[in-house]
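Board notes, transcribed. Complex of a protein with magnesium ion.
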Amino acid sequence: MSNLLDGIRTIRDLPIDNKRTFIRVDFNVPMEDGVITDDLRIREALPTIKHALERESRVILGSHMGRPKPGKDNSKYSLEACGIRLAELLDAEVHMPDDCFGDAAKKVIFDLRAGQVCLLENLRFHPEEEADDEAFALKLSEMAEVYVNDAFGAVHRAHASVHRMAKFFRDRGCGFLLEKEIAALSKVIGQPERPYVAILGGAKVSDKIAVVETLLKVCDTLVIGGAMANTFLAAKRHNMQASLVEEDKLALARTILEKADAAKVEVDLPIDVVVASSTQAEEGQVVAINAVPSGKMALDIGPKSIERFSKHFGSAKTIFWNGPMGLFERAPFSNGTFGVARAMASSSAFTVVGGGDSAAAVHAAGDGLAAKMSHISTGGGASLELIEGRKLPGVEVLRG
Ligand code: ADP
Ligand code: MG
C-alpha cells in the first residue's frame, strides 16, 4: 500500500510565518447543558495551534459542532464554550466572531496580529458547509492565505471546510494530529510488525464487514468479542438464546470464517459469556458458551475469554482494537472491555484503538490505560473508513 501521507505537506513545511492561516480543527466535543464534558479533542489540536502561533501566524480556527437544524434554535451548538476552554489551555485571548464569515468575521480576522488566534462560529450553522458548496468554500478561503487541516474526525466527510475550501489554496497541508492519526492507522493496515493481533467487537457484524475484510488480509490472529461475536457463535451453531444475533448475517459470518481459514488467520471467539435477562439487570451470570440459559442474553465476554484473548497480546508486536467486548456502559457488563483494554495497554506491542465507542471505553477504563496505548484515534467514523481502505476526501484534497 502506498503511504497515505505521500505528497501531503505538513504544517512544518508550509509557509505560515506571519500569514493568515486557516486551521480546520475538530472541536465537536461532547457537551451537557452548555458544559464541555470531555475536552480531549481541543487538547489534541493544541500542538498544531501552538506551532502556528509560535511561527507568528494569524490563526483562524474553523470547526463544526453537532448537527444544527435549519430554522431551529441552534444556540446549544455554539462553539463559544470551546473558545473559552481553548483560551484557558493556551493562556491567551481567543477572538470569537459570531459567524464564520461576513463583515464581523472579516473585521476580527483582519485585525488579528501575528501570534493571535480567532475561532469562527460553528461552520454547520450554514447548510452550505455540509453541501460542500463552492461559493461558501470560496468565501471561507478568502479570509486566509494558507490552509491546514487537523480535523481527523471530519476528513471522511466531503464538507466545504474539509474538502472544497482546500482546493482554493496553493499552500495547503495537514496538522500534527492528522499526520499522527494517518501514520498510526496506516501502519495497522500497511506493513505491521508481526505477530499482528486484531481484536473486533461492538454492536454489529454488518457495521464492520469491510473492516473485517481488510484485517483478514493483514493480521495473524483475529479475536472477536462483543455482540458481534454472538452472530459468529450462532453461525457455529451455538444457541445464543435472547442475545443480539443478526440472523440475516449468519451466512456472511460463515463466509468470513472460511476466508480466515484460507488466509491462515487464526480466529478466536469467546468461550464464556456474562448473561442476564435484560440490559438493565443489576448483575450478570458467567456461563460457558454452550450453556446460555433460555431467555438470557450475552452482554459481555466471561473471565476465561478475557484470559484467553489477553494471551495473544503477550507475543504480539502489533495490536489493533475496534469494538467493545460487551455493554461496557453498564458496570456489570464492563469487565470484558476493561480487562482487554488493560491487557492491551500492558503489552509492549504497537497498540492502536479505533472507533468512537472503543476510544470512549479506553478512557472510561481509567487506570491511566489511555496513556499506555500507542495511539487512540480521535475520529470514530474516519478511523474505520481509513481501515476499510476508503479514500478520505479531506485527506485526498491535501495532496499536491
Ligand atoms: P465503535 O464505536 O468503537 O466502532 P460499535 O459502535 O461497533 O463500536 O459498538 C459499540 C456498542 O456495542 C457499545 O454501545 C456497546 O454497548 C455495544 N455492545 C457490545 N457488546 C454488546 C453486547 N454483547 N450486547 C449488547 N451491546 C453490546
Ligand atoms: Mg460506535
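Residues 201-203, 207, 226-227, 244, 298-299, 322-324, 326-329, 355-358, 380 surround adenosine-5'-diphosphate (ligand 1) (CB under 6 Å). The CA atoms of residues 158 and 393 lie 6 Å apart.
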